[in-house]
Amino acid sequence: MRPTITGLGPLLDQIGADTGMTISTLGVLAAVPLVAWALFSPLAHDLSRRFGQPRVLLWSLVVLLAGTVVRSLPGPVVSLWIGTAVIGIGIAIINVLMPSVVKRDFAGHVPAVTALYTALLAGFGAISSGVVVPISHVELGGDPAGWRIALLVTGGILLPFAIAVWWWAHRGRRAHSRSASQHGRTGIWTDPLAWLVAAYMGLQASMFYMLVTWLAAISMSTGRSEVVAGVDVMVYQLFSLAGSLLLPLVLRGRIERFAPALIPSLAIVGAAGLMLAPGAILVWTPLLGLSSGATLGMSLTLMAQRARDHDAASALSGMSQSVGYVIAAMGPVVFGWLHSLTGGWTASLSLLLAVLVLLTVVGVFAGRDRYVLDSR
């Protein structure tokens, strides 16, 4: 899932030079998957109930592979936009259903399994960010492979295996799951706690996609090369992996109640550091990464922990990711627009800092031990 998205940021300069897109347009391109997630996330719960989670997830992986191929087709730039949108649709369904799968199959170990899941997202995303630029420079027939081949390799190389393994692991599983209550589909949109989880999801996702899209550009503005800037994005995501794995250690005892509000503090320090001393990017990137991975794991954990069963978890996941990615989609676009407007990164990083402060405030209320769809 993640490599299809994270390989884009380090290649934005190449894509812009090849297609003539402006910085603002590239920001919109980076936001296309987020818009798709906002639009299609609400469909995942109903699709799962009608066809069963295994089948829906299998076909979502197929859609993801198709989008990855279309995005890299040579010719008109429209294939880049269409492929990116199709990628977004495939990931939208998977994003929603995975917390429900964790709730169903690992109900007694939700934080630990969610940490493993988010760590794998961060790890493979980091690899994609680190190798995508070198792959684009590999010579094929005397010419560089280019950004299209690089995105195809990093985004698509594992998907055929994922499709095969998922099919094998779930062969024979029942296709339909209609017995659960219908209340989760309707009541979830009027539940105040669900809106808090959605806000937490959206704000942390906005932080991640602002950084994964523009961190390479920020790095290059300090004099670092394109390849090194890609490595900086990889380092950010490797520390995100570490943050995901460390989260279960935080979610213990009394501190669990305050964890959603405390975790963003590391990123607040990192964002302020990038504003004040951008040359020390290798000092601030680990702080941003640790917080990013932990807040993603925290948001997915909230989707499972704030629901009493996997059907409610699926409904909460669909609603919160739909709302959340509406918030997140604005992040990379406004971040890039502020850079175009001012010519520097201070205004953009001020936006990031404001998002993190708001994430902290929302975390105070989302951390309370309550359940969605419970009668008041």
From TrEMBL:
Residues 1-372 form the Major facilitator superfamily (MFS) profile domain. It is a multi-pass membrane protein. SUPFAM superfamilies: MFS general substrate transporter (SSF103473). Its main location: membrane. It comes from the Bacteria. Keywords: Membrane, Transmembrane, Transmembrane helix. The keyword Cell membrane does not apply. InterPro entries: MFS, MFS_Cyanate_Porter, MFS_dom, MFS_trans_sf. It is found in: Cell membrane. The chain crosses the membrane at residues 20-44, 56-74, 80-102, 114-135, 147-169, 193-221, 233-251, 258-277, 283-304, 316-338, 344-366. PANTHER family: 2-NITROIMIDAZOLE TRANSPORTER (PTHR23523:SF2), PTHR23523. This is MFS transporter. The lineage of its organism: Bacteria, Bacillati, Actinomycetota, Actinomycetes, Micrococcales.
